[in-house]
Amino acid sequence: MEQLATLEDLPKEYVSTLTQSNLVPLWPSLRNVLPPNQPIPQTQATAWHFKDIKPLLLQAGELTPIEKAERRVLVLANPGHGLENMKATSSIYLGMQLLLPNEWAPSHRHTPNAVRLIVEGTGAYTTVEGQKCTMEHGDLILTPSGLWHEHGHDGDEPVIWLDVLDLPLVYYMEASFVEGGDVQEVKGTDRGHRYAKGIVPTVHFVRENSGYPLLRYSWKDAKQVLDALAADAAHQGPAQISYVNPETGEDCQKIIGYSAIRLAPKEVVQLERRSAAQVFHVIEGQMHIDINANTYELSRSDTACAPCFAQIDLINNGDEPAYIFVADEAPLQKKLGLYSTRARI
Ligand code: 1HN
């Protein structure tokens, strides 16, 4: 493609006259906003190790009372986006949150969608629109846009979880805001028991929160399905599950997609190159991940992110299966007609 003229090729007075009228010439910036053939991501391959995060998070527990934090979180920020922008990828926010015994993170609701993936500890719960969802290691709990949610802790050890939100996108759209609320009345426990093996309740009433029939996806169940897939001789390719709305089969949230992969001991999975950036988090086991020219060793509770169109290899060097949670921007890109894949190089 043709090299285009730069700002320096224009007379200074001309440029300053443009500026005074809030005008900008397109051509000096055209190749930045429309790079040839593929995007130039700001997202950098980055890994965060739990052994580094945990002591700092526990220290935050001593330094800042929950009343002064509302949510006690250390954000996993991608240096390619500038740490202060709190982005793991262009649209995905990641944070590790700590709740100590007897603490309470008050009820609120906001426009960004959130999920939490439970990393460590027992005894805590999230109440979402009156449904109390207990937290156990590996569980996925949804707090979709506009639903009231609060966290409590009746146990006796620190509980840590990974928050995943579409905050960077919603903030960019100038659509991000929160409302505070009163303590919720608990009306029931999570509705997981309503859904089993292709059996769903017949819908003959108007739903309170249509679109989010299931709020807690139990890791015990997800792991069982992954193990069954791996043991099934007829199953082709890596054992992988998607977290979906059990009534429609669609992605469980509108913007970020959630899935999990099982890597058998010594299994190597070469992912296709995707237009959607991705996040990987080790639920159990360990893995070696190659993202373009970067290599990371990830253990239990470690997290990494990969930019769009990255070439990614997942390798389980251990003797036990590895279970990896994946978050990606695919639902958003598909809705916008922007999703594509490329052959590996
Ligand atoms: C939020 O509501 C939670 O409810 C956690 O636990 C992290 C980060 C940004 C905005 C809202 C929570 C958040 C958040």
What does this protein look like?
The strands form 5 sheets. The protein has a 6-stranded antiparallel sheet. The chain is of the alpha+beta class and 345 residues long. The chain starts with 11 loop residues before the first helix and ends with a strand. The chain has 6 helices and 24 strands. 15% of the residues lie in helices and 32% in strands. The chain has 2 domains: 1-37, no CATH class; 46-198 and 213-342, Jelly Rolls (Sandwich). The radius of gyration is 22 Å and the shape is globular. It has helices spanning 12-20, 30-33, 50-63, 167-172, 219-231, 330-335, and strands spanning 46-48, 73-75, 93-99, 104-110, 114-120, 124-128, 131-134, 140-143, 149-153, 159-165, 178-180, 188-189, 216-217, 239-242, 257-263, 268-271, 273-274, 278-284, 287-291, 294-298, 303-306, 312-315, 322-328, 341-342. Bound molecules: 1-hydroxynaphthalene-2-carboxylic acid (1HN). The site of 1-hydroxynaphthalene-2-carboxylic acid has 10 residues, from strand 3 and strand 10.
Q: What name goes with the CATH superfamily of the largest domain?
A: Jelly Rolls
- The neighbouring-strand order within the major sheet is 1-21-18-23-15-14
Strand content: 25-35%
Shape: globular
Going by CATH, the architecture of the largest domain would be Sandwich
| Oligomerization state | single chain
Number of domains: 2
Characteristic key phrases:
2 domains; GDO-like; 6 helices; Jelly Rolls; 345 residues; Cupin domain-containing protein; binds 1-hydroxynaphthalene-2-carboxylic acid; alpha+beta; 24 strands; dioxygenase
